[in-house]
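Reopening this one. Same input as before:
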Amino acid sequence: MMLPVVVSQQITGDHFASIDLLLPADLLWFSGHFPTCPILPGVAQINWVMHYANQLLGQLPVVRSIDVVKFQRPLMPDDEVTLELNWERTNHKLMFKYLVQGEITASSGKISLCQ
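Same output, byte for byte:
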């Protein structure tokens, strides 16, 4: 399994989405990263940002650059997280944030999309 379990989702207008996710221990991303202490790789987090943004906010332009990414807390097997997406259409920026327990920022970033 490559995607987490979607527990719930909320879409506000055409620019904001909030998705509650469960990260099952059997996600392929956890396999081998790292064997004694599995964590969700950053590339998986970015992949999910784009996947859910395109699914919930409409087909977005392709990625031009990843301007800012901060990994502040590892995402572990069986974590329940909230992914917040904010699409600033006029600036062509997609902001994201993964929250644990609804308030602890695990990672966040800003992605520039082509115009």
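So the earlier flakiness isn't reproducible anymore. For the record, The first strand starts at residue 5 and ends at 12.
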